[in-house]
Amino acid sequence: QRLKAAVHYTVGCLCQEVEEDKDVQFSKQSIAAISEITFRQCVSVGKIVKWCFLILCRHAKRTTVNTEDVKLLARRSNSLLRYITQKSEELASSNMEQKEKKKKKSSAAKGERTPGEQEAAVTENEDSNMA
């Protein structure tokens, strides 16, 4: 129900934009009809995508859908494929940064120094020895 309400709200906003741009009016009934058609179409496409993923995973003898599966299904739409690739790379980069932060925190908690901190300490020792 919440998803259906979100679709209805979004369709209403889009209709409002069209009304402003094209100087036309949408009745509440027409907005409701467009919302219902949109929702049903999304459900239908969702079921198709679900089956495609199941078939891909079975074919690959896996139970997990991965990024490459999603890219494979999106390959016919260049803009969608670019968008998915970009988001995938952003997520991978973000995950790597989080892993690095966790590694630094666990090293600091254990009293260990990161390679950069070790290098700075060696340089500091060399500077104090020269003085």
TrEMBL record:
GO molecular function ontology, one term from the record: protein heterodimerization activity
SUPFAM superfamilies on file: Histone-fold (SSF47113)
Keywords: DNA damage, DNA repair, DNA-binding
Protein family per UniProt: Belongs to the TAF9 family. CENP-S/MHF1 subfamily.
A single cellular component GO annotation: FANCM-MHF complex
Record-given protein name: Centromere protein S
A GO biological process held by the record: resolution of meiotic recombination intermediates
InterPro entries from the UniProt entry: CENP-S/Mhf1, Histone-fold
Superkingdom: Eukaryota
The keyword Magnesium belongs to this UniProt entry's keyword annotation: no
Source organism (scientific name): Chaetops frenatus
Region (Disordered): 91-131
